[in-house]
Amino acid sequence: MTLIVGAATPGGSALSGPVTYWDIALSMLLVAIAIGLSRWQKVGLEKDMTVATFRSFVQLVAVGYILNYIFNGH
Q1: Cα–Cα distance for residue pair 68/59, rounded to 1 Å
Q2: Nearest-10 crossing angle of helices 21-40, 46-71
């Protein structure tokens, strides 16, 4: 199962197309690495980065559903 963010266009870039769960897992891995580095270096940004990641994910999903609703003829 994939999350459809946008339809791939014939002349589009390689980054256009559906977002898979693998893509999301990879991005979460990178966030986890950044959080780990913050903890290791005692920067103290772990909570802020976790909250920001969750908020951005929710906001992007919401905007995606709204745009999907608008551009599908409603």
Answers
A1: 14
A2: 160
